[in-house]
Write a structure and sequence with these properties.
single chain; 85 residues; mainly alpha; 0% strand
């Protein structure tokens, strides 16, 4: 198992709700540390910036009923299900 590398000050982009919740937990943990080094401080700032960007993106989304309905794969008109080839 590889050793854990120290934080380099950069955060991954937050793209999903799960990413947001994980990043928020890490940011909270980092903010509670009183003896942060400069790399941890840069990572905290980067996480906060990514969290803000995600929140802004989430606020821009509209609650269009068509978007909230079925989000799975859609069948093509050629998929008639009759089984003839």
């Amino acid at each position: 198992m590889p050793k854990r590398v120290r934080a380099n000050g950069f955060a991954r982009p937050v793209k999903t709700r799960r990413d947001y919740e994980s990043a928020a937990a890490v940011a909270k943990r980092l903010s509670n540390q009183s003896d942060r080094d400069s790399a941890a401080e840069r990572r905290l700032q980067s996480l906060l910036k990514e969290l803000d960007q995600y929140e802004d993106l989430e606020d821009e989304l509209t609650d269009d009923p068509d978007d909230l309905s079925y989000s799975g794969p859609h069948r093509r008109w050629t998929d008639n299900g009759s089984g003839d080839s």
